[in-house]
Design goal:
The chain has 218 residues and is α+β, with helices and mostly antiparallel strands. It has helices spanning 43-53, 100-105, 123-135, 154-158, 180-190, 196-217; strands at 2-7, 15-16, 72-79, 82-89, 95-98, 111-112, 119-122. It folds into two domains: 1-23 and 40-137, Rossmann fold (3-Layer(aba) Sandwich); 148-218, no CATH class. Strands 2-1-3-4-5-7-6 form a seven-stranded antiparallel beta sheet.
Length: 218
């Protein structure tokens, strides 16, 4: 569960969420009529920041914009009944800032950044940790079936729950250009179905594609 989203950016309005349905609305000035709304309340940007804090690629994140990358965004999450607060900035997107004691209690091994004095874990470790806590994936995934290509991934699955622009066109895809195998494998895992079936089918497709390319070059 998301408890809050914050930032040290002065103009950023902190968002605190409660159990159940939360609705993000824009304020209207007293003089505004029913047709004068402020649809640009930052809804898409908030979802983007949430994805950023949940390990998304930094290159396309709003937090990595030149005007924002110097600021740190923070998220407080409740996992297994315990809360953990993390931070991430565009300038140091590979590091997830954590509280040493809290992170250690969750089974993480934070490192100390001697320049800043802050403790952190890598974004890759953070993603694997969340994959384990949210989707019961192995932690770490190295040496397991999930280390292979075309297998379920934490980022593909979490994107169904924090959908960005283009993610609402089809219920079975969390992005407009999501590959068919990716949606099949990850939805199968989420729904408790045998994800190895679409996984094996995709491997056959890849072999067929390689054979076609070989025939063309011969």
């Amino acid at each position: 569960m998301i408890i809050s989203i914050e930032s040290d950016l002065p103009s950023f309005k902190s968002v605190r969420l409660r159990p159940g349905l939360n609705v993000l609305l824009a304020d209207k000035s007293p003089s505004s009529d029913e047709k004068q709304t402020r649809n640009s309340a930052g809804k898409s940007s908030l979802v983007d920041v949430i994805n950023f804090l949940l390990g998304s690629r930094a290159s396309s994140a709003v937090a990595s914009h030149d005007a924002l990358k110097a600021y740190t965004f923070y998220g407080t999450f409740e996992l297994d009944g315990n809360q953990i607060k993390v931070g991430r900035s565009g300038n140091a997107s590979s590091k997830i800032l954590v509280d040493e004691e809290k992170a250690t209690a969750f089974g993480l091994t934070p490192k100390l950044d001697k320049k800043t004095g802050h403790h952190f874990v890598s974004n890759e470790v953070w993603k694997e940790f969340l994959g384990n806590r949210l989707f019961a994936m192995p932690f770490p995934t190295k040496g397991t079936a999930f280390a292979q290509s075309f297998t379920p991934s934490y980022r593909s699955m979490i994107a169904y729950f924090a959908r960005r622009r283009g993610g609402f066109i089809r219920p079975d895809k969390q992005a407009a250009k999501q590959a068919t195998w990716d949606s099949q494998v990850n939805l199968s895992y989420l729904l408790g179905l045998d994800w190895t079936i679409p996984f094996e089918i995709e491997k056959v497709r890849q072999r067929e594609s390689q054979l076609k390319e070989l025939k063309k070059s011969s």
